[in-house]
Write a structure and sequence with these properties.
The protein is an alpha/beta fold and 325 residues long. The chain contains 9 helices and 16 strands. It has helices at residues 41-48, 112-132, 149-160, 172-181, 198-205, 222-227, 266-269, 273-289, 305-313; strands spanning 2-6, 15-19, 29-38, 57-58, 63-70, 82-85, 95-99, 104-105, 140-143, 164-169, 185-188, 210-215, 229-237, 260-262, 296-301, 320-324.
């Protein structure tokens, strides 16, 4: 097989495409012929060594494709099935081995690239709006990077629950994308008046503060997210696209209004097979019936995968990026 390998921790220059032996599924595993593999910031953290994965390793953890072979002790998955996963390993390759427990069925009518694009970001948005902070009708949510992959899905899911969305974006093009996803108000943080803060711009729209801030940006937006919350509001910090948040004094949460801060991750919200099937099923059914739109921002050949990560890390993209092995 051909695979995108991280030779050592570092930048995109540490990525190389290699020929490797074809993998074989073991007990409880299936071999998937990868049709599309998602490009995600967790891959960046692994490549850079922030998440310690021993090198060399094949990059990628999300994909969709046909089952090419089934290992022993597998039930409910058969050769030829179209499946997807958000918790694979080495998915930027022509073939990958996936735990049968982590493989979910893709409904008829959904293309493999759309299924791959929906998995990690779709289930992330699902757990954020249904479980981390369960949005209620008339709640106000602050969504940063609302033109990005998760951002667009968060906007759609909050609106589907009857909430109001205050979105932040960084360009005129991204304003239109956030509005097309359903955002009620859009703030361009690159055009704030001199001396004005992002939190002040949010409070101009929502004087009492927002119920929840969904923040996948991290260092650049964390303080604004906190300052935008109403008393007993929640900051759900689910990513760090701009860098990690520095050490933080929890005592600050008290005078600010008994605030909540959480750092969730998808694995803890798909801890059982039943929960995984619930979230993936909700997302994929919504995609199939057209009530949830998946925006694919770019498709890259395996040999061009390094450019996909340059585009992702440079925040030059909207929607989901895919590697097509």
């Amino acid at each position: 097989m051909r695979a995108l390998v991280v030779t050592e921790h570092g930048g995109v220059d540490k990525l190389t495409v290699e020929e490797r032996p074809d993998p074989a599924p073991g007990p409880g595993e299936v071999l998937v012929e990868v049709a599309a593999s998602g490009v995600n910031f967790i891959d960046v953290y692994q490549r850079e060594g922030i998440y310690d994965v021993p090198t060399p390793f094949v990059l990628g953890g999300e994909c969709a494709g046909r089952v090419a072979a089934v290992g022993p002790d597998v039930a409910g998955v058969a050769e030829g099935d179209l499946v997807a996963t958000a918790s694979g390993s080495g998915t930027h390759a022509t073939h990958t081995v996936v735990s049968a427990r982590a493989a979910v069925p893709v409904p008829t009518g959904i293309d493999p690239d759309v299924a791959a694009a929906a998995m990690l970001q779709g289930m992330t948005a699902h757990y954020l709006v249904n479980s981390t902070y369960a949005v209620q009708p008339d709640d106000v949510a602050l969504v940063h990077a609302a033109a990005g992959g998760v951002g667009q899905l968060l906007v759609q899911m909050v609106k589907a629950k009857g909430g109001r969305v205050v979105a932040t974006v960084g360009s005129a093009e991204k304003v239109d994308i956030a509005r097309s996803a359903g955002a009620d108000d859009v703030i361009r943080y690159d055009q704030l008046p001199s001396g004005a803060s992002l939190a002040a711009a949010v409070r101009d729209l929502v004087p009492g503060g927002v119920h929840v801030a969904y923040d996948g940006v991290g260092q650049a937006t964390f303080e604004a997210s906190l300052a935008s919350l109403r008393p007993r509001g929640m900051l759900a910090l689910f990513g760090a696209a701009s860098g990690k948040v520095p050490p933080f004094d929890l005592q600050r949460l008290n005078p600010a209004g008994s605030l909540f801060v959480t750092r969730p991750t998808l694995g803890h919200y798909t801890a059982t097979r039943e929960e995984l099937l619930w979230r993936s099923g909700d997302v994929l059914r919504a995609v199939a019936d057209g009530s949830l739109r998946i925006a694919i921002g770019g498709r890259y050949a395996l040999d061009d995968a390094a450019q996909a990560y340059r585009d992702l890390e440079g925040r030059r993209t909207t929607g989901k990026l895919l590697v097509i092995p």
